[in-house]
Specification:
globular; alpha/beta; two-stranded antiparallel ribbon; 410 residues; TIM Barrel
């Protein structure tokens, strides 16, 4: 027999579940009351035991607003989970498919040259549309939003989007190639941006320009990093994609440059993103080798992640000179804990960086769909998610057509 609190609790659940409402019996929002009764037979042990009816009702209202609290009789404790039990924590938003670099591993010039047709402005999400969708994602459990591209800073007045997103209870970050950061860092910080990550693949001028294929100098990127730090957007994370025979000879030099600065250099294994970068397994420098090379000069020790699902493996210098990170999508796949959803420039959802197709939200948005309908759609996409590309990667899977990283963000 249920306790008095349990009885009240079941009645409250019935109050939220029983009224018929549009969409309540379809898709990801299909609930069965008897499944709730099964879950609630142990309420004497619940955290609600000593709470007032008003408190219970408020907390259950919040949990029931998060689609997928219970699905197929399985209680998820208010958090959305995919088929492998992975929560949705991070959202990456690509604000543009354009970039002023032509990095060989992302937007090679032979594919993204002068004749390439980028999306017209009318096809991409407005700042207001992005902010509305971001609010729905935060309501579903997202804790961190990262703005990406293309190169996000080529989108005009990006600080205005930052101002809209800062109203949400989520960490707000941005990844950039740094080329326009020096002139925009202060406005972004004033608008509410929390932190930036800057891509910098080499300190050597010739190597850097060969990799970005845009004749852009290293010094200007470093100027952007310094401007970001001065604006309070630190610690700045610096990402270096390492490719064998191209820039791997600079691993130690890159570590040395950022040691003791308070910034964090992260070395990323060269990945088969998109379908145009000509990836080969032989070009990959394993993260373990990166750590060995750095440790030979400055001993490192592993440290715990900042949160569950963090993709970068963290290491610190034993002499206290800071930390480095490695991202090992190829040799140490982290699919099992991946908690990222991606929103493309034109409003499609992608559940994996290596996805072949997405799920259109823009059409719903512009057709006048309610937030509830959009929330249900997002929840259904995430709950059906089973991606694990990096766990099954081979030279052959690398040849499959995949969405380009410049379209959905890295």
């Amino acid at each position: 027999m249920l306790s008095a609190v349990g009885t009240v609790f079941v009645l409250l659940v019935g109050r939220f579940l029983l009224p018929e409402r549009k969409g309540a019996e379809t898709g990801a929002n299909r609930f069965r009351l008897e499944e709730y009764f099964t879950e609630l037979t142990v309420l004497d042990e619940s955290p609600f035991r000593d709470k007032t009816v008003r408190e219970i009702e408020a907390e259950r209202a919040y949990e029931l607003s998060v689609v997928g609290v219970v699905r197929n009789g399985r209680r998820l404790g208010g958090a959305l989970a995919d088929t492998r039990g992975r929560p949705m924590r991070d959202l990456r938003i690509s604000v543009t498919d354009r970039c002023n670099f032509r990095c060989v591993y992302c937007m090679p010039r032979e594919v993204f040259g002068a004749g390439h047709k980028f999306l017209p402005h009318s096809a991409i999400l407005s700042f207001e549309e992005i902010a509305r969708l971001a609010g729905v994602f935060v309501g579903l459990g997202v804790k961190k939003i990262r703005l990406t591209g293309g190169e996000p800073l080529v989108r005009k007045d990006l600080h205005k989007l930052v101002s809209l997103l800062k109203k949400l209870p989520a960490e707000l970050t941005l990844t950039t190639n740094g080329s326009l950061l020096a002139r925009q860092a202060r406005a972004l910080a004033d608008a509410g941006l929390d932190r930036v990550t800057v891509s910098l693949d080499s300190l050597d001028e010739a190597t850097f320009q060969a990799m970005n294929d845009a004749d852009f100098p290293v010094a200007k990127v470093i100027e952007g990093i310094e401007a970001a730090a001065a604006a309070g957007l630190g610690p700045v994370k610096i990402n270096m994609v390492v490719k064998r025979g191209v820039n791997d000879h600079e691993i130690a030099a890159m570590a040395a440059r950022w040691r003791g600065t308070g910034h964090i250099i992260r070395f990323i294994e060269y990945m088969d993103v998109g379908s145009t970068n000509g990836w080969r397994m032989d070009d990959v420098i394993p993260s373990a080798e990166v750590i060995r090379r750095i440790s030979a000069a400055w001993p490192l020790e592993p440290i715990d992640p900042n949160y569950a699902g963090e993709v970068a493996e963290r290491w610190r210098y034993k002499d206290g000179a800071g930390e480095v990170g490695v991202i090992s999508s190829v040799t140490q796949a982290f699919c099992a804990t991946c908690n990222r959803m991606r929103l493309s420039t034109e409003g499609s959802l992608f559940t994996c960086l290596f996805a072949q197709s997405g799920h259109d939200l823009k059409q719903m948005l512009r057709a006048g769909a309610s937030d509830e309908a959009i929330r249900n759609e997002i929840a259904a996409v995430w709950q059906a998610r089973s991606d694990r590309y990096s766990e099954i990667r081979t030279q052959e899977t690398a040849k499959r057509p995949k969405v380009e990283m410049s379209y959905i963000g890295g």
